[in-house]
Amino acid sequence: MIKININASRNYDVYIGSGLINETGALIRQIAPDSKILVITDDTVYSLYGERVISVLKDSGYQTDCFVFPHGEQSKNLETYGRILEYMSRAGMDRKDCVLALGGGVTGDLTGFAAATYQRGIGFIQMPTTLLAAVDSSVGGKTAVDLKTGKNQVGCFYQPMMVICDTDLLATLPSEQYACGCAEIIKYAVIKDEQLFNRIFETPVSDQLENVIADCVSIKREYVLEDEFDRGARMALNFGHTFGHAIEALSGYNILHGQAVAAGMAIITRSAYNKNICDKTSLDRLMEILEKYGLPAVTDFSPEKLAEVAISDKKASGDAITIVVPETIGRYRLEKIKKADLISWIG
Hints:
Radius of gyration: 19 Å
Largest sheet: 7 strands, mixed
Order of helices and strands: EEHEHEHEHEHEEEHHHHHHHEEE
Number of helices: 12
Shape: globular
Helix content: 40-55%
CATH topology of the largest domain: Rossmann fold
Oligomer: single chain
CATH architecture of the largest domain: 3-Layer(aba) Sandwich
Distance between the termini: 42 Å
Strand content: 15-25%
């Protein structure tokens, strides 16, 4: 087991290893010995792990309840968020209690936002069941729901009390969902760590899972500690996301997040090469690794449509938007450009 401490506005530990589901109760005892725990999960994850997690918590002496919602990005909205709050209130939860997000990024975002706003903040534990959530969304405190106008438009920063990442839970992931997690790993490698890029290029992520997750969490920790509220350096973690979020929205969220981010990384890297910012070798290596992990490098949506939707993204401010532009594998720059010029960055 690997333990990584994150000393943000809340100090917490991230546990990464095999078999941690059986240690859930004992781990939570360290930080919340007297809490009532509400497990929040979607219907797919509940059928796989819900009853087991609840059983472990009850065996550890916890009063435990469960809220289950339909799986998919379509549930990440104000309606589901409101239903969670009403459920918590009817269950008599108070500020000494906590919620446990069992699932992927949708579950973590929903649960975290509910925890942050219910009675002005209650305890919140992340238990990721997707590779994408393990390496990215479960750490760092971003919580949100979507509006019809765009992804993650309503939310706040609210750090969890603990993250429990049992790598065994990733074994049931469909191949497409697993590839989505690899897209986020590639993101970390491109912006920060050429050695990590080389490792995952030469050896499948699945053969070095625990260490790769730990590497990504450690990279994210650096950005969170420097810029917890995403006003400066942490924007680097949005590499591929400006156009990725637009692709997701235009597809009605039928294109998965990691697939959209992969295409977004390819779009911006091609443009960086065309503008003599990124070298040809780095562009070629990115294209190769995306193909290796079964991820898309193109989209069918027009530059005009992508730019139109991307301009409404939360990263836009006034008449400008900040984009993450790779210079080479392991190095990037942040470019603040006029919204009107965004279409010229779609390559």
